[in-house]
Design goal:
Largest sheet: 4 strands, antiparallel
CATH architecture: Sandwich
Helix content: under 10%
Shape: globular
Structural class: mainly beta
Oligomer: single chain
Number of strands: 8
Distance between the termini: 11 Å
Strand content: over 45%
Order of helices and strands: EEEEEEEE
CATH class: Mainly Beta
């Protein structure tokens, strides 16, 4: 049997206001029970006057309901004022479930059109 990759959108077109984040409840939990590898792909749009970047945070869970309060993995995204930015990064699939939260580090401008996909190889 060959290996396959499944792409799943887990966060769709959300906004993180200035100095705020998407919520874990905005994101669908991803089950990594059979995963050999996993990557997270994120797209977001910075305001034309943005001066700070974003942080993508991954939170783990053993049951798909109760998620850690400290992130399992993080990825920094540099500001690119007025542009849509895409970032893909691997995470260790050792956890059973995870959800993603995107934090806007800009203190005055919103981060828009935030979407997240998971790419899981089984």
């Amino acid at each position: 049997m060959g290996l396959g990759k499944t792409v799943t959108k887990v966060l769709d077109n959300k906004t993180a206001n200035a100095s705020s984040s998407t919520t874990l409840g905005d994101c669908t939990a991803e089950d990594l029970s059979a995963a050999l590898q996993c990557a997270i792909e994120t797209v977001m749009t910075f305001d034309a006057d943005a001066t700070a970047g974003a942080t993508i945070k991954v939170f783990a869970s053993s049951d798909g309901t109760n998620f850690d309060t400290v992130e399992y993995a993080t990825q920094s995204v540099s500001v690119s004022a007025g542009n849509t930015v895409g970032v893909t990064f691997p995470i260790n699939p050792a956890v059973k479930y995870f959800r993603v939260q995107v934090t806007n580090l800009d203190t005055s401008k919103s981060l828009t059109a935030i979407s997240v996909w998971t790419i899981v190889q089984e």
